[in-house]
């Protein structure tokens, strides 16, 4: 049985999807972009600040589902520009020190609301 995971501490879904779904002991988090849930706006245009906000949003969703970064097994990073990889990766490494999940990183032609970064993840519940 699937359980929808939702929290007001992260931006609400802007389409016909859930922030996350919990199923069979796993949490599947939809991609998060750098929206500050308090304002509904991007935190900044800076890739490092955007990446940090994405992780704050992901953590809020994971915690709402009873999980956390220590239980993440896979992430997918979408970048608007692969030239932002080093700056994104520096922030990313602060969130995954001990537990380093599997990851794919791709450049996307365009991200929602013209974000510079979007990240989704799969974690143990």
Can you give a write-up of this model?
The chain is an alpha+beta fold and 125 residues long. It has one domain (3-124): 60s Ribosomal Protein L30, Chain: A. Helix content is 23%, strand content 29%. It has two helices and six strands; from the N terminus they run βββαβαββ. It has helices spanning 47-64, 85-95; strands at residues 3-5, 20-23, 26-32, 72-79, 102-107, 117-124. It has a six-stranded mixed beta sheet with strand order 1-2-3-6-4-5, covered by helices on one side. Helix 2 links the parallel strand 4 and strand 5 (102-107). The chain is globular and about 40 Å long.
Topology at a glance:
Elements (H helix, E strand, L loop, with lengths): L2 E3 L14 E4 L2 E7 L14 H18 L7 E8 L5 H11 L6 E6 L9 E8 L1
Parallel strand pairs: 4-5
Antiparallel strand pairs: 1-2, 2-3, 3-6, 4-6
Helix pairs in contact: 1-2
Global shape: globular
Following the backbone from N to C, one meets helices and strands in this order, namely EEEHEHEE
Radius of gyration: 13 Å
Tell me the distance between the termini. 14 Å
Taking the sheet with the most strands, its summary is:
6 strands, mixed
């Amino acid at each position: 049985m699937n359980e929808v995971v939702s929290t007001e501490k992260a931006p609400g879904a802007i389409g016909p999807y859930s922030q996350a779904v919990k199923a069979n002991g796993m949490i599947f988090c939809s991609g998060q972009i750098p929206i500050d849930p308090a304002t509904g706006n991007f935190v900044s245009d800076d890739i490092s600040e955007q990446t940090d906000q994405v992780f704050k949003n992901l953590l809020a969703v994971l915690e709402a589902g009873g999980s956390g970064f220590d239980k993440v097994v896979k992430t997918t990073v979408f970048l608007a520009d692969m030239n932002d990889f080093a700056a994104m990766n520096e922030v990313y490494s602060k969130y995954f020190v001990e537990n380093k999940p599997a990851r794919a990183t791709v450049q996307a032609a365009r991200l929602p609301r013209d974000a510079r970064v979007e990240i989704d993840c799969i974690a143990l519940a």
